[in-house]
Amino acid sequence: MTTLSAPTTNWRSLLLPFIGLLFVFGLFTALIAIFKPENLDAFLSSKNAKTIITQTVIVGVGALGMTMVITSGGIDLSAGSQIALTSVACAMTLNGFADGDPASIGALGMTVAVFAAMAAGAATGAFNGSVSCFLKIPPFIVTLGTMMIARGVAEGIAKQSQVRTPDNTLQTFMLRNPEPEWLFFAPGVWIMIALLVVVGVTMRYTILGRYIYALGSSESTARLCGIPVTKCRILIYTLCGILMGISGVMSYAFLGSGDPTTAVAKELDIIAAVVIGGGSLSGGQGSPIGSIAGALIMTLLVSGCSMLNVEDYNQKIIIGLIIIGAVAVDMWKTRRQAAA
Fold first, then answer.
1. Which pLDDT tens digit goes with each residue over 116-157?
2. What's 144's DSSP letter?
3. Thinking of the domain 12-23+52-335, which architecture would CATH place it in?
4. How many CB atoms sit inside 10 A of residue 119's CB?
5. Taking the chain, what is the end-to-end CA distance rounded to the nearest angstrom?
6. Could you give the angle at the alpha carbon of 168 between the alpha carbons of 170 and 62, nearest 5°?
7. Are 325 and 301 in contact (CB under 8 A)?
């Protein structure tokens, strides 16, 4: 009987995203020192470091879910729309508990709001997985459709406007300078780190993690090994949706409201973070910690370009070229491995 072994750890592949992060940091440090020396102290300050790490949370949490999907050989183009939908779900649930009295939003209301966002994400993820598996439609097509559906639902239930809520503790989860000060980083950062540990342990040490790598390496072989492919894929997409729901809560915290128009094209940043972090669009390869490093690189690029006063449209061009480059490197590695 064929058995599955735990995925082997390639320390070189784990280190590469962090080497890339150091390279990008060094590159922008040099460029700013040459062209905008007056901004160098601000770029190297702890204040900017905390800002970069805090702004990484939304993409970082989403990238953790996307890591599982991509490693299993799938893709989810609805990530940005899920973030928008779940942020609206969170805000509307909070308003339901407020009932005209802002002071009535207590711990219970905030907890229910978080779970409502996670449930909305889970439902969307389960829909993606189920439709793709049962109707035999490629996940690229299914999630492309869901991208429009989720965005439309978000705009519909929010009546095409931001869902504003009374002040509450959830809105402090993305503050650069948190209260109490001993937290040092925003609560959202600590939540991202905790989720990194959970996803990392899941993918490295559990049966589900072995199934994820097996599905991405060869679905036909996984079937021969007795893996319940359909159930696993639905579960993977559902877990990804839950993490998108948490990312939606962080988006609500960052904006202070539920916005159905937020996170447009955010799925590209999330996918790019996974690929830059060592994940393969062909499946079978992926690292949660590498994806977080990839998300940090994406945020650092934006920060560095801002310090250099690079126009927004040029930033989009640069990030687009980086995405193409990351995918090109991924395809080159895949062909090289196939030829070996």
1. 999 999 999 999 999 999 999 999 999 999 999 999 999 999
2. H
3. Orthogonal Bundle (1.10)
4. 17
5. 27
6. 20
7. no
pLDDT tens, position by position, 22-54: 999 999 999 999 999 999 999 999 999 999 999
66-95 in b/e form (b: 16+ CB < 10 A) is: bbbbbbbbbbbbbbbbbbbbbbbbbbbbbb
Rounded distance between C-alpha atoms, residue 302 and residue 266, angstroms: 14
Helices (H), 225-265: 229-255
| Whole-angstrom distance, CA of residue 57 vs CA of residue 192 | 6
The answer to whether the CB of 249 falls within 8 A of the CB of 187 is no
Using left for φ > 0, alpha for ψ between -120 and 50, and beta otherwise, residue 139 falls in: alpha
**Can you give the pTM of this predicted structure?**
0.94
Backbone region of residue 99 per phi and psi (left: phi > 0; alpha: psi in -120 to 50; beta: other values): left
Query: Does residue 340 surpass a pLDDT of 70?
Result: no
**pLDDT recorded at residue 1:** 43
Q: Is pLDDT of 84 > 50? A: yes
* Strand-pair partners of 258: 163
Check: CB of residue 190 under 8 Å from CB of residue 183: yes
Give, in degrees to the nearest 5, the angle at Cα 52 between 50 and 56: 115
What is the model's pLDDT at position 58? 98
Which phi and psi angles does 123 have, rounded to 5°? -65, -40
| Tokens describing residue 313 | 């449209």
The answer, yes or no, to whether residue 104 has pLDDT greater than 90, is: no
Domain ranges of the chain: 12-23+52-335
Give dist(CA 331, CA 324) in Å, integer.
Answer: 11
